[in-house]
Design goal:
The protein is of the alpha+beta class. It has 2 domains: 3-70 and 101-173 and 266-343, FAD/NAD(P)-binding domain (3-Layer(bba) Sandwich), CATH 3.50.50.60; 176-264 and 350-371, Alpha-Beta Plaits (2-Layer Sandwich), CATH 3.30.70. 31% of the residues lie in helices and 33% in strands. The chain contains 9 helices and 19 strands. The protein has helices at 14-24, 50-56, 62-66, 104-116, 162-166, 236-247, 294-313, 323-348, 352-366; strands at residues 3-10, 30-34, 47-49, 70-71, 74-79, 82-88, 99-101, 122-124, 128-133, 138-142, 147-155, 173-187, 195-201, 204-212, 215-224, 253-268, 273-274, 277-279, 285-286. The strands form 3 sheets. Strands 1, 2, 8, 9, 10, 11, 17 and 18 form an 8-stranded mixed β-sheet that branches. Helix 7 (294-313) packs antiparallel against helix 8. It starts with a strand and ends in a 6-residue tail after the last helix.
């Protein structure tokens, strides 16, 4: 079997799209596949931070993203109907906002448009069934019977990565036995739409993140749960009760766009590089959404990996350059897993002392200049 294409990217979420885009613009022949039949229309990840916008800018001008999102100007802590602390992220940030609230499906659409402009199309509904790798190439078996050979394979196929499972790579970590609720709601007269709103309640965490035009992402801690309990999506009435009871404000929901329950896992593979198969994004690390670092960490994985892989393929660098991807990105992933987990546990703890800290101390610590 002859090698058909230099790189196969498995997964067409943000990680896979950025990987394929960065390789293609450097002249590398790349193929990208995804098991889903079509792009997801769910909003999923909600924010692009400044660093991600900066590293993407050479491939996708920041204005293509800002046209679909709303800049983040600060965070506001509230309790019992009162504002505890308002934190400004710094006003005018120049060309790159501190952060940009933008639904993931919009981010993916912008990235896909840029990729298609380079002549690369995502092959939707194409499932990887098996992977075998040697020193010279990677053989991939697809659904439908196709077998193809590639020089490299990038597994960017998410938390349940088929690529990772085919190679028998362990994904050590743990699940957090806590129920979380998510909703994208169009609210009536919800207030300023330029900042995150965090409500500190004894009943649990409530966070609101503005997409603009009255639409908000709502995330709420719904308490401990047996991991064997099936997931049940909340109703709009459930979310409205949480909004009102935890904020002390009289919200009105005009329309519910998405209602979902999710659980959190904290996991990371020990090694990102496995010969000619390389893992990136959620295939390599998953963690709490606290801090909004998931998609951003994954995008930065992809950018770091792609220019190095391109140089190796072009014989402009030895394959040992790829070890720096592991050296540089694995510690970042580990820090995000640890940091977001610590933040999450503080916010969901029922311990009276931690509740006191969260309600009376945390908002003011976060507001100090060194913490901003």
């Amino acid at each position: 079997m002859e090698t058909s294409i230099s790189v196969l990217v498995c997964g067409a979420g943000p990680t896979g799209l950025v990987t394929a885009l960065e390789l293609a613009r450097r002249g590398i022949d790349v193929r990208i596949v995804d098991a889903e039949r079509k792009p997801s229309q769910l909003s999923k990840a909600a924010v692009l931070w400044r660093r991600s916008l900066e590293v993407l800018h050479p491939s996708v001008p920041v204005e293509r993203f800002t046209g679909h999102g709303r800049p983040v100007h600060g965070i506001q802590f509230e309790a019992n109907g009162s504002v505890l602390q308002e934190i400004d992220f710094g006003g005018q940030a120049g060309r790159f906002p501190h952060g940009l609230f933008i639904p993931q499906n919009k981010t993916e659409a912008v990235l896909n448009e840029a990729l298609e402009s380079l002549g690369v199309q995502v092959e939707w509904g194409t499932k990887v069934k098996d992977v075998s790798s040697c020193e010279e190439h990677v053989d991939v078996h697809f659904s439908g019977g196709e077998q193809s050979r590639f020089s490299w394979l990038v597994g960017a196929d998410g938390a349940h990565s088929t690529v990772r499972k085919c190679l028998g790579i362990e994904f050590p970590g743990a699940a957090i036995d806590q129920r979380w609720l998510l909703a994208d709601l169009k609210l009536v007269e919800a207030g300023q739409e330029d900042r995150i709103r965090m409500f500190l309640s004894t009943a649990g965490l409530l966070g609101l993140f503005p997409y603009g035009n009255g639409v908000w992402r709502v995330i709420a801690d719904a308490g401990p749960i047996d991991p064997e309990t099936p997931r049940v999506d909340p109703t709009c009435e459930n979310i409205l009760h949480i909004l009102r009871s935890r904020s002390g404000l009289d919200w009105t929901v005009e329309k519910a766009r998405w209602l979902s329950e999710f659980r959190i896992n904290e996991r990371q593979v020990d090694h990102y590089c496995h010969g000619r198969v390389i893992l990136a994004g959620d295939a390599a690390h998953i963690h709490s959404p606290a801090g909004g670092q998931g998609m951003n960490t994954s995008i930065q994985d992809a950018v770091n990996l792609s220019w190095k892989l391109a140089m190796v393929i072009k014989n402009q660098a030895a394959s040992s350059l790829l070890t720096t991807y592991q050296d540089e990105r694995h510690p970042v992933g580990a820090a995000v897993v640890e940091g977001s987990g610590r933040m999450l546990r503080v916010m969901m703890s029922r311990n009276p002392l931690i509740r006191f800290f969260r309600r009376w101390v945390l908002p003011y610590i976060v507001g100090l200049p060194p913490m901003r």
